[in-house]
Structures are given as structure tokens and as C-alpha cells.
Amino acid sequence: MNKFLKEFKDRGFFYQCTSEKELSSILDKEKIKGYIGFDCTAESLHVGSLLQIMCLRLLQKNGHRPIVLLGGGTTRIGDPSGKDKTRKILIDDEIERNIKNIKNILKNFLDNDDPDTKPLFVNNYSWLKDLNYISFLRDIGKHFTINKMLTFDSVKLRLDREQSLSYMEFNYMILQAYDFLELNRKENCVLQIGGSDQWGNIINGVELIKRYSNNQTFGLTTPLITLASGTKMGKTENGAIWLDEKNLSAYDYWQFWRNIDDRDVIKFLKMFTEMEIDEIEQIKNKDINDLKILLANKTTEMLHGKEMAKKSEEAAKEAFSGNSLGSNLPKVNIQFKKIDDKINIIELVLLSKLEKSKSEIRRLIKGNAIKINDSIISDEKFEISKDLFKENYLKLSLGKKRHIKIELN
């Protein structure tokens, strides 16, 4: 088996592949271009996209060139895959801002120096915006049957639930297939990688290219990743785990990985770090907390750099020591206009963004789960004054795992 495909399987990336033997043979003989598409519906990607990013890194590691397709065109329509309702349509300025930000995030993960393997960023709006509808129907639409399109899960799910599916969304699968055709024509791209929910769309592209130009291309999908708790990768009870530091601090990102369920640690070391598989196997029976710290350090280092990973680990140690304000903790600023100003504990927690719900904050207070400078706050009417700030700081803790430093301006 080809080296790339073997590691793809060993790390748990593999779900399905079209013509696997032929793909393996081609990968042994030549360096290829493969692409993954990313929606631009938000300003940042979250860890739910991290497996796809690791696939791009693996392509580079094996000498192949990744193409990153930023869906500036298809984002204007919306992919119905995995959705139970029509997605909000964004204005052009929002989409362009999202594209720019997502591109910068991906550059943090990928090698941009080697001319043979550096990522090629493309925006499908460049070829979708000027499509002639009549020509597109005649040249591309004729290769698709409504009968087959109705069998795809993304369509069946909505129809079975009697939820509306717009004609605009219904066309998404044709446009994604057309993306693959364009990349094959313009860049000689022969591989599309995507999540398992994209299998039908990827097959459409492979078949369209075969019918249109008789070129052979390939599709490769990854499994849907869920946490051992059953929740979807990328989402937590406190919100999405964003890859942009503006949305989530390096410390909170580190904490997400540090607090992963014991059952997920070895699997995620294989999936989300570049440690050798043999090395992971050798250490898999070590203390689980040491392995969690290793996972947190490796994943944070990849996104935020070694220094921030180290600072995040130190901040966690300080937060749990109980005798420090935590100099490396993420912080927010607060300002008192008058010398005798005070702020209610609930308002302070909202300001910290550690919790968004007042009712949940009250529940935490009743459960003795909120602390100021490691002292339990048991009264929801408790007010914070300037006296509680030591050297202009105080430490706010929610439970054992969430800590932040409040700085007095």
C-alpha cells in the first residue's frame, strides 16, 4: 500500500475511497495535487475542521501539493449536507472577510515555504460568478439525474422530515462537482478529500470529470469524529472551539485538549498530532494525565506555537495551585469609574465570557462552583470592589477547569 494511504489509515483518517488500488498506484509513481473545500460561513474554523487540515498536512508530508478551496461562491448558496434547515445567506463583504481570515488560519498549519508542496489557495467564486446558466445546464446539468440526486442523504434527510429544501441548495451538489472539474482542468487536481457526509458530492465530481473529459480522478473521505461523550467534535457546552485566537485564547484551546475524555486521548494523539504511530503505541499505557498534557501541548503548539503551548501549561499549573493569580492566564479588562464602584458577581462572570447564561451562573453559585481568588462565592448578590484586586488583578474560577484573570484598568 502507498505510504500516504497507509498513514492515512493508521491515523484513523480513512473512511471510504474510490478506486483505492489505482489511487495507491498513482501516488507511488508521481506527486499529485489534492483538494479540500472549506465553507466560509464564519470568520473562523473550529476544531471540527481540524481533521481535514491534518489531511492537508499529510499530503505535504508525502511530497504532494494541497489545494485549499475557499467556497466564496458556494457559501453564497449553502451546503445542505448535515443541515436540517436553510442556512443564513451572508452578504459579500462578510464572505470576503471570512475568506481572508480562514486563509490566515490555514497558513498557521501548513508549510508555505516549499514551492513544490506549498498550499494553493483558490476561491470558487472566480469561476462560479460568471457562469452562463443556459450553457451550464447544457454542458454540466445534463450529466445529473434528479432520480440519483434524490437518493443522497443530504436531500433525503430534509425531505423525510418534511423540511423545506430550496432549489438553490439542491443545486449545491452540482456546483461542488463542477468545482472538482474546474480544478482538474486548470490545476490537474486528481483527488478530493472530504468528510463522510460529502461522499455523494465527491462521487458526483469524479463521475462528472469522467464523462466530461474521460480523466480519472479519485475521492477519499474521513469519518465523522465525535467525542467519547457522544457530542460532535468542535462543539462543547461552552461553545465552539475556534482556531482563531480572537475567538478563543491559546489557553482555552490548550484546556480543551487537556480535558478530553480519557477514552479519546490515544485516538486524538494519532489524529491531531504528528507523533509517529510507533511512538504513540509505546507510551499509550503511561499516566493518562501526562498523556493529556502531551496532547494539549502538541495540538496547541501546532496552532499557536511552542511558546504559547508552554505558557498555557504553566498557566494551568498556576490556576490549579491555588496560591497564585495565574500570570499566564487569559485576561479581560474592567474599569471602575469611581473609587467606590462595585460590580455584581453575575455581571463579572458575563464580562469574563466564561459563561453566557445568568441562570447557569446562579446554578454554579448555588453549587459553590464559582471562586474569586480561590475563595468560594456563595451569594449571587456578592459585589466585587477594588479591594479584591491584588496588584491590579483578581482570579475568577468556574469549577475546576475554567479560570480567567480580571485586570483592573
Question: What does it look like?
Answer:
- By secondary structure, the chain is of the alpha/beta class.
- The protein has 3 domains: 3-222, HUPs (Rossmann fold, 3-Layer(aba) Sandwich), CATH 3.40.50; 249-321, Orthogonal Bundle (Tyrosyl-Transfer RNA Synthetase), CATH 1.10.240; 331-408, RNA-binding S4 domain (Structural Genomics Hypothetical 15.5 Kd Protein In mrcA-pckA Intergenic Region, Chain A, Roll).
- The protein contains 18 helices and 15 strands.
- It has helices at residues 3-10, 20-29, 50-61, 92-109, 125-128, 133-139, 146-149, 153-160, 167-170, 172-187, 199-213, 250-258, 265-272, 277-283, 288-304, 306-321, 345-352, 358-366, and strands spanning 16-17, 33-38, 65-70, 120-123, 191-195, 218-222, 235-236, 239-240, 331-334, 343-344, 370-372, 375-376, 383-384, 393-398, 402-408.
- It has a 6-stranded mixed sheet, sandwiched between helices. The protein has a 5-stranded mixed sheet with strand order 9-15-14-11-12. The protein has a two-stranded antiparallel ribbon with strand order 7-8.
